[in-house]
Structures are given as structure tokens and as C-alpha cells.
Amino acid sequence: MPIRNLMAVLAACCIVLPVNVLASLKLPETIKVNPAALDAEPICDPKISPSWRKAQVIEGVKIEASEICSPDNPHLIAAVVKGTNNISMATLMETDLSPDTIIKTDDIDGDGDPDRIVIKLEVIELNGRTPDFEGVIPTFDIAPGIQPGAWVFAPKTSGMSTENFESIRANSLLRLPSPVIRVEVGDIVQIVLENTHYFPHTIHLHGVDHPFSHHEYGSGKHGNDGVTQTSEINLMPGERRVYEFQPRQAGTMFYHCHVQTHTHLAMGLAGMIIVEENRPNNWLQTLNVGGGHVRHPSVAVKEQYDMEYDLHYHAMDKELTSIIQKYNDPRLIAREMNRRYDLTDSTEDYYTLNGLSFPYTLRESMIIVEPDQKIKLRMLNSGGEFMAVHTHGHKATITHYDGVEQNPAAQITRDVFDMAPAQRLDLLLNTANDGLHSYGAGAWLFHDHREKGITTDGMSEGGSMSMIAYKSYLDDIGLPKVAHGIDLSVYFTKEYYERRLPIWQDLDEAGSLGAPGVRSGMDAETQETVTNLIIGFIIGLLIYIVFARKQHIKGAAAVIVSKLKGSKGSKTNE
Fold it and tell me: Membrane-spanning regions, if any (predicted)?
């Protein structure tokens, strides 16, 4: 090939290379997700009647108003206060409770309230695999589209596990977390566990004053501490067991399964148990099923506080919870959980407050306040890691650790509250606007300050975060009126937690932080390959030219050297 042709090819390659590089620097178009294409949910649960939010009296039980958009069923509250044996059939039919779920009898001390309490619980599986069709049943979403497998203690129900024959959604009693149990100092309490599950289970009364053995039941053959390694045998499927206690100390306690605790507790078999101070005519809200607001607080609480909230924090490992969604054979589930699952390698993926993750926490578990109030917060961490709960705009006072009241001189006021696994804290939230206890009205966030605690399966915003919201900052449906045009509705979509929605696409008109589209022309891998080929070709061509014109190059070099020597000699003669 004539050298001039080779030089032409070399020049063409030198032109193509920078053009190819420039093409790779061209940015793709921005693609915006159309909000109309999202699988958006109503912000409030449409199956909950707005009338439930009102203050009302049912069966003689005074039920406080609830400002949140998805409050608890007031008929259920009346039933658990009076006992299912002391209400009308019309009220019972509104609750899905069995007629013997809560039996209240015998005013032993003559102070106007029942002192013998029988509570019946079942073990229920949520979001588990079924052989009947693809999918899980009964479903319980902790956030839009998020359905981890779970087990819970649930009040004994009278009907189906689903809402009806056409729905696969769990009925309102079957949900995370296991319900809060409330009794009074001196009550003779029996918790009857009916094991409706395929695995053995027990109940351990953590922190609750109870005897080691229950000699009144089964001729003393059964323990009363729930620990299968030391105090009792496993409660097998289809069996029932009575746990009896008569507490002598008030406080915020804990109950949970103590069979294979490293998995059963993490799967959701845990709840708060609260022992209230003994007061006359003290009819307690024996179960708090759902949101944290206690709408019928105890006499002792009302002596010091304007409102009371139960805040149960829990966390779950996706690897663990998915086991019951992969298998329907109890033998395979037992193998995976008891012998193959390694807790020491686990990571927590789902963080919940009262069984839900943000944004559903805004439906149920906001703390609604007004200025100059005193609010009692009872907190439990049933997860496997430390927490650091931070209250924006407020500093609360720790009054109790693990159900034990602290000396007033030793009570600490702060805005970050450490909770170890299984630990309970009682807080006094004072909304006096003094720059210490409260900074004033607003919609103030409160959340776990470990940053993963505000994620759901790694996606933020999510997790257990909620708000301390003043009534003046609530809209008509009970959601916070957030500032600066922030739209909360985007979080109520499955696409957000499936990572299909660019979270900043609407920050400006240009959509400068939207999703990048597909590049036109060659993709990055092809561009790199072509560039390397061109560079290699240029280098090879240069080497060929050097060898092909070797004699010419040598002659030219000799001429140049000769001229340089001649020039140097001329300068020397001068």
C-alpha cells in the first residue's frame, strides 16, 4: 500500500477517535414517571369509618377522640374494656372477637372493677405461603406492597382469618404487633394460649411478677415461665395452656414466645404487657390492638397525664421472614429456621412502629398533642439491635426503665433515647413551649437515629419513623400539613418501595434529578471496545510505517545528522 494511503487511513482514525469520545460524553434525555401511572393508595385506609375518630360512649365505656386518620375500632375498645362476657351481641358482632376472648369477673377487693381476668390468645401466621394459589395469605402490608412473613399472638377470633370470602387481606384483629395486654396490680390474670399454629410455642412473661410454676393448672405438671429448656414442655399444635399471675408491681413489661427465641420472637411473637396501678373503678383497656393511642386510659394515668401512647418498635430480617413464603411444609420450615438460618449473619431489613413502617405509621402511630399537655409514652424495643429514638422539637423525661420508676432526682431529660433489645422506657412528653421540653407547635419528626431505622428494605423514607403532630398542624383527615408544598402521597405507592420512582424528579421544572433515559447510539461498553480497536489500529499502523520505510527513515536521519555536524563545524571555524 502506498505510504500516502496509509497516512490517509491514519488521519481518518485520528478524526474518528475524538468524535467517538465526544459521543460518549453526550447525556441521555431525562425521563419522568407520570404520577397517573403509579399504583397509588388512599392515604387513609378507606375501609375505616371516619366516625371512629369521634369521642363516644359504647356499652357505658367512654372512648376518647382520636385525630389520626385510621383509628382503632371503638366497638373493639368497648369490648376489651368491659369484657366480651359483659357486652351486647350487637357490639360483639362489630369486633370479630370470640365471645370468650376476654372474660372479666369477680370484684374481689370490692372497689368497683373486675379482678379476675381471662385472656385468650391464638398464634396466627401472616403473609405465609399457601398451596392453593400463587401469593401469600392472609396478607398484612406493613408499607405499600411490603408483606414480610410473620407470626403473631392474636386475640381469639370468631370468624375467618381474612376479611371475607372474597378478600385475602387479614381481618383487623390479625396483625402486627402482638396486642398490648393491660391489667391492674392485684388482678388474678390467666392468659390462655391456644396453639393454632403448626409449630410449638409458649409465652414468657418478661418482667412481669409471676410464679415459676402454675400449680393450679394440670396438677402442677406445667411450668409458668414459658422456657422450654427449664420450666415447661413445648405447647404443641392443637394444645392449650394457661399462664397465671397476680402482679404486685406496676410497670411496662413484655411478653414473647420462648421456643427457638432467636427466630420466634423476631417473627413477631412479642407484645407489651402493662401492669397499671390499682385504683377504684378502674376498668382497663385490656387489649390495645393496632395503633398506639390508648383511647380509654387507666384512672392512674389520667391522674397525671392528658394522654397515653403505646409505642412498640420491632425489626425483622427478610431472609428469615421469607422462609414461610418459600415453603408450606412445616418440616422444611423447621429445617430452614432451626438448622440452616444463622442469626449471627442476619441483617434487619424491616423496621416497624406498632407493626407498620412509614408512611403507614402516619395513619396510626402519630403522637397527636396540643400545647401545655403531659403525654405518657410507653416504649418497647423487641428488635435485635440497639435503638436511638430521637424526638424533634422536644426533650422528654425518662420516668421508668424496664417498669421500674426512677427517683425523680435521677430522671433524665433528653432528646435521644437508647433502648437495648427487650428494654422498655416510660417517657413524660411535656408540650409546654419553654425551649426545653417543647420548641412550640409543628409537625415534628420522631425516629430511630440509626439511619437504617428510617429505611424499609434499604429504601428511604421508610422504617419506624413517625411524627409528634400538634392538632393545629393536622388537616381534615388527620394527616400532618407539612410545610413548603411537600407531597406525602408519593410514599403511598408500591413503585416507590420497588425503587421504580425517581424520588427527586419534581424538585425543579427541568427535572434535573430525574431518571436518565437510554443513551442514543452505542452503549458505553461498545464505545470502549471501538475506542480500543481504533487506538490499537493506529499504533499498529505507525509500527508498520516505521518498518516499511526503514531505509528512507535511515537516510533521512543520516542527512539530518550530517547537517547538524556541518552546522557545528561552521560555528567552530568562526
Answer: 529-547
Q: What is the pLDDT of residue 428?
A: 98
CA atoms within 13 A on the CB side of 376: 22
Pairing of strands 270-276, 180-184: parallel
Of the listed ranges 102-116, 395-409, 445-459, 468-482, the least confidently predicted one is 468-482
- Pair (146, 22) in one structural domain: no
Mean pLDDT in residue range 150-166: 94
Residues 221, 227: contact at Cβ < 8 Å? no
What's the confidence (pLDDT) of residue 555? 72
Co-location of 56 and 23 in the same domain: no
Are 91 and 14 found together in one domain?
no
- pLDDT for 521: 57
Closest CA to 170 of 178, 158, 162, 159: 162
| CA nearest to 115, candidates 187, 180, 49, 56 | 187
* Number of Cβ atoms within 10 Å of the Cβ of 325: 16
Task: Please give the residue range of the domain that contains residue 293.
Answer: 50-360
Do 123 and 24 have their domain in common? no
The number of folded domains in the chain is 2
Flag whether 217 is in a domain: yes
141 and 24 within one domain:
no
Residue 565, pLDDT > 70, answer no
For the chain, the distance separating the N- and C-terminal CA atoms, rounded to the nearest angstrom, is: 48
Last residue of a domain, one of 360, 376, 411: 360
Strands 416-419 and 307-316: unpaired
Only one residue has cell 430480617, namely 317
- Residue 405 located in a structural domain: no
What's the CA gap between 265 and 371, in Å, rounded? Answer: 38
What was the pLDDT predicted at 510? Answer: 78
The HSE-up count of residue 550 (CA atoms within 13 Å, CB side) is 4
- Rounded mean pLDDT, 349-358: 98
Largest alpha-carbon pair distance within the chain?
A: 135
